[in-house]
Design a protein that fits this description.
This protein is of the alpha/beta class. It is built from 4 helices and 5 strands, in the order βαβαβαβαβ. Helices cover 35% and strands 21% of the residues.
């Protein structure tokens, strides 16, 4: 099963990105045959920035994204959203690609399930 996660919120401040990634990681563990695609939009593109430094005991979105990628998940960030936030030309977490709306549209029609956070 192909599952697409669309994340819209910033990595910290709300727990939407955290909950989306928890679900993605759980699916990879419990339903290992599932294909996980994550598309970062709006403020969620900042989830893809490296060197996140969170307090001990606090979740870290960078580590969570890396865990999803390391288990075969694909992560793409909206290019126009990244450009609007001034991060399009910054280095991103290894494995995250800048993408576009046609790619999101393709992932959407190919997905068996689409979850939006």
């Amino acid at each position: 099963m192909k599952i697409l996660f669309i994340i819209n919120d910033a990595p910290y401040g709300t727990e939407k990105a955290y909950n989306a990634l928890r679900m993605a990681m759980t699916l990879q563990k419990e339903q290992s045959e599932s294909e996980i695609n994550i598309f970062l939009m709006a403020d969620a593109v900042t989830c893809a920035l490296p060197n996140q430094n969170t307090p001990n005991g606090y979740y870290n979105i960078e580590r969570m994204l890396r865990a999803v990628i390391n288990k075969g998940g694909k992560v793409k960030a909206c290019g126009s959203c990244a450009e609007a936030r001034g991060i399009k030309n910054l280095s991103l977490i290894e494995g995250v690609e800048i993408s576009n709306m046609p790619e999101l549209a393709k992932w959407t029609v190919e997905a068996d399930k689409v979850l939006s956070f």
